[in-house]
Amino acid sequence: xxxxxxxxxxxxxxxxxxxxxxxxxxxxxxxxxxxxxxxxxxxxxxxxxxxxxxxxxxxxxxxxxxxxxxxxxxxxxxxxxxxxxxxxxxxxxxxxxxxxxxxxxxxxxxxxxxxxxxxxxxxxxxxxxxxxxxxxxxxxxxxxxxxxxxxxxxxxxxxxxxxxxxxxxxxxxxxxxxxxxxxxxxxxxxxxxxxxxxxxxxxxxxxxxxxxxxxxxxxxxxxxxxxxxxxxxxxxxxxxxxxxxxxxxxxxxxxxxxxxxxxxxxxxxxxxxxxxxxxxxxxxxxxxxxxxxxxxxxxxxxxxxxxxxxxxxxxxxxxxxxxxxxxxxxxxxxxxxxxxxxxxxxxxxxxxxxxxxxxxxxxxxxxxxxx
Length: 371
What we know:
This protein is α/β, with parallel strands linked by helices. Helix content is 39%, strand content 15%. The protein has an 8-stranded mixed beta sheet, with helices on both faces. Helix 2 runs parallel beside helix 8, helix 3 crosses helix 7 and helix 9 packs parallel to helix 12. It is globular.
């Protein structure tokens, strides 16, 4: 059996261990410390948002934003339909009603036309959402300009879930640089990793300050432990932030490698018109966090099983939220495009350390299956 090929394993640049050892030497082991401060500052600069808070996960960042917006039972939130459940889970746990917006064919991200329709309907019903969560998908930004304008027109806060898009751009703007705030993931399979972790970033200094306080159990500035509200234990540890600093320095190289991997797949599979890769929107440059393709007239699950037989990890495209049992009965605008992508879509191994040998071997297996 060949050595396992994972879907998107972390890729270390070599300086991570040195940074972790420096964190140990400082004896700042628990959450907060100089590495956290440095990581926040460097990350804020990289996304051109002046304020950032390093957290235990991207989900924690969303939870803090939903708290900030006072989302509660009876409220509505609009969210991209083609995404991971965490994009909306915290809002629903707080009692909100989710409304899902399908993607468009040109980017596979939230369709601005459908969002406009949903917001217009909500205004007529006098039930505008408390927030719109627009998700950057597989390393590609959604159409920030159009979505931002629609949200501003209706006075609805926009949150960018850029968990999958660190390093991508929209018309020269870094991923997440739109709306009220953005959230990012540093999970083990993301573009850069801290093993587990996330970031909340915004232009709004007071919002980030409140989120930072709530992430530290909402402790008041007293010598004793004083609490005027209940908070969370959501801060990133100094050790993980040390990894993040080193990984952030590697971001341009990681993105370059990801895009090279995508190009290699395209080159090796160009003779198979039934394979159509995720389109690249005209307004930006994606990272190709994952190389994702539609494979018409073939069962992706069979391809996944065949690859697994060769010890190669792959997976389907995200199952749309409106098809998830937990959201049964939720309203969706559109839905057909996301459903089609789920039925025909395949995510291929895309780790920054993937060799051309492995890419060629994967493509050979796919070609055999397609024949």
